[in-house]
Specification:
five-stranded mixed sheet; five-stranded antiparallel sheet
Length: about 450
């Protein structure tokens, strides 16, 4: 049985309450940001970085490297703690990409052929049948489980697969009758740490993907869970299944949550969280009551083990679109723009002001984020783009929230309110509003 929850910021009574306490902010005490330096290859060419993945222990990031002026590209693994890196240039015109990295600094992706690329410079090709190519996308905790898709060079039809201990196995695809669509292939994007849950899509005749999970059974085989069937219809005209776009955007390492990108015909793309254990889908609808502008499109891009979703908010016309990262904590009504939530991260705020800022990775504990931003300070102009990658540490964010309550608890004139505007004697578990004696307010979360 499906279970919908729609989050549109606040209801009318909540909107009135928030308006009365304009200027509410989320307390924070020790956020830091590390900007990653550009890298240089053996020939002395300098590359900008587009970080797309962060290891669970936050030590490594991986992604694409580029020098647009000289039209040179490649992939990198970067040791954030030591400041060193390994770079590999594109080997052919098919391009290259790294989308996931382990605690040991082993990244998975492709560079002409599917491979793992280690911080120590070791590049290991993945096994494939003759005449096939592949695009690995996700990796388990120890790189013994890698997921992606492989395809014949004759027909280019993609099929989801998993490499377990180096051996390739195609994941099952349902027939048209069971699937309710004409299945023309599949793709796998994400895996839990132990490989027991894999998130990906089935492909229809138009190449449109719809969200599915592959769950590992006791005998090691996988069964395909057609999650989309409760929510997706090809034209979005079914009120019980209103989404005509229903794609995965991340899977928690513990296999409990998936981040989704869902769409309504002719309307904005929405941020969504799917609870794999309960089957509940929670969708955020931008109604303009918080940081997110009304009707903004938001693309989810990752999710932590406690269901915190990260994403990117798109506003304005396509030709002049502004992209700003946001974070949506599990249990809260709405996501927040990270630049508003952490104004002391001055580099991050500056990137946000430029309007080309992307968050793409979050650690399982929700503490570290990685992404990249358009950086005019590096001299990019016109059609020449320069990007800077970074790692954000949200250390003490929760502690900062709690201390905001503790520091005022003994003061005179302190008032506590629920998010619905109901005054209470003490802050309750969850989201609260604290009004201090001087009239200032702060939004706090008690876990």
């Amino acid at each position: 049985m499906k279970n919908f929850t729609f989050c549109g910021g606040f209801s009318m009574c909540r909107s009135m309450f928030v308006a009365a306490f304009a200027g509410i902010s989320l307390a924070a005490s020790a956020q830091t940001m590390q900007v990653l330096n550009s890298i240089t290859d053996a020939d002395g060419t300098t590359y900008s970085l587009m970080s797309q993945a962060i290891s669970p222990n936050h030590k490594y990031v991986a992604g694409r490297a580029m020098n647009y002026e000289e039209m040179k590209y490649g992939v990198f693994v970067y040791d954030v703690e030591a400041g060193n890196y390994y770079f590999q240039g594109d080997v052919d015109m098919m391009g290259s990409d790294l989308r996931a990295v382990t605690d040991a600094g082993i990244a998975v992706g492709y560079n002409g052929s599917p491979e793992t690329l280690s911080i120590d410079g070791t590049s290991t090709p993945l096994s494939l049948p003759e005449g096939y190519m592949a695009r690995p996308q996700g990796v388990g905790a120890d790189a013994n489980v890698i997921v992606g898709s492989y395809y014949s060079e004759m027909d280019f039809i993609s099929h989801a697969c998993v490499w377990r201990d180096g051996e390739l196995e195609q994941l099952p695809e349902p027939g048209a009758e069971e699937a309710g669509i004409e299945v023309t292939g599949s793709e796998a994007y994400y895996t839990s740490a132990d490989g027991s849950v894999i998130a990906g899509t089935l492909l229809d005749v138009y190449g449109m993907g719809v969200f599915v999970l592959w769950n590992q059974q006791a005998d090691g085989t996988y069964v395909c869970d057609l999650v989309y069937k409760d929510y997706f219809s090809s034209d979005g005209s079914d009120t019980e299944r209103p989404y005509n776009y229903f794609m995965p955007a991340g899977l928690s390492q513990n296999g409990k949550y998936a981040a989704l990108k869902v769409g309504i015909p002719e309307l904005e793309q929405r941020m969504a969280r799917y609870d794999i254990e309960t089957g509940e889908l929670e969708v955020y609808v931008a109604d303009g009551s918080g940081d997110i502008p009304e009707s903004a499109s938001i693309e989810s891009s990752g999710i932590s083990d406690n269901g915190t979703v990260i994403g990117n908010c798109f506003t304005g016309m396509v030709q002049m679109q502004t992209i700003n990262p946001c974070i949506w904590k599990n249990g809260e009504d709405a996501p927040q723009l990270i630049s508003k939530m952490c104004p002391d991260l001055t580099d991050f705020v500056a990137f946000d002001d430029m309007g080309g800022n992307f968050i793409l990775g979050i650690t399982p504990d929700g503490r570290y984020l990685t992404g990249y931003a358009y950086d005019t300070g590096k001299g990019g102009s016109g059609l020449v783009f320069d990007y800077t990658s970074y790692v954000v540490d949200l250390e003490d964010l929760a502690t900062g929230i709690k201390s905001a309550v503790t520091s005022t608890a003994d003061g005179d004139g302190i008032e506590y309110y629920t998010i619905d505007g109901v005054r209470v004697n003490t802050p309750a578990k969850g989201l609260n509003i604290v009004k201090k004696a001087d009239g200032s307010t702060v939004k706090v979360v008690i876990k």
